[in-house]
From TrEMBL:
Record PROSITE patterns: SSRP
SUPFAM superfamilies: Small protein B (SmpB)
Chain positions covered by the region annotation Disordered: 136-158
Stored CDD domains: SmpB (cd09294)
One term under GO cellular component: cytosol
Record-stated family: Belongs to the SmpB family.
Localization per record: Cytoplasm
The keyword RNA-binding is assigned to this record: yes
UniProt-recorded Gene Ontology molecular function terms: RNA binding
Gene name as annotated: smpB
Family annotation (NCBIfam families): PRK05422.1, smpB
Protein name (database record): SsrA-binding protein
Length: 158
């Protein structure tokens, strides 16, 4: 495939890299986002942040809370609220499964990344995750350091 780097499709807008360190990801779901026009334009500029955001089940629907999409500068009075709650678009079966795992098994829904799919639609990769304990985080860090060191040693030896 011959795709350009400036292609607006298949572009990661925001990524929550800390989530994989703080949580043990058990399952992922691709969800659509209910956005306004100015939010989409702002996302295309690639300035969103989902570091401290999470998803929650309220009234039979799933909402993305505390995600930051900056205002679109050219939109004047029709602009959006940067930290507003955004509805996630999932089918009923997926919503029920996610809500059940959160309520019954004590897991959380953490957004991993926002991106544009092949059709140019904004999507959210949502993970069902369990929080890691401190010793698990240390183990992850040790493993990462060892892999980095192993790569260096192999590179030196040839």
């Amino acid at each position: 495939m011959n795709q350009k780097k400036s292609d607006p499709n298949n572009k990661t807008v925001a990524e929550n890299r800390k989530a994989r360190f703080s949580y043990e990801v058990l399952d992922t779901v691709e969800a659509g986002l209910a956005l306004t026009g100015t939010e989409v334009k702002s996302l295309r500029q690639g300035q969103a942040n989902i570091q401290e955001s999470y998803a929650s089940v309220e009234g039979g629907e799933i909402w993305l809370i505390n995600s930051y999409v900056p205002e679109y500068l050219q939109a004047n009075r029709f602009n959006h609220e940067p930290r507003r709650r955004r509805k996630l678009l999932l089918n009923k079966r997926e919503m029920a499964r996610l809500a059940q795992s959160v309520e019954r098994e004590g897991m959380t829904m953490v957004p991993l990344k926002i991106y544009f799919n092949d059709k140019g639609r904004a999507k959210l990769l949502l993970a069902v995750a369990k929080g890691k304990k401190l010793h698990d985080k240390r183990e992850t860090e040790k493993q990462r350091d060892w892999n980095r060191e192993k790569g260096r040693l192999l590179k030196e030896r040839g």
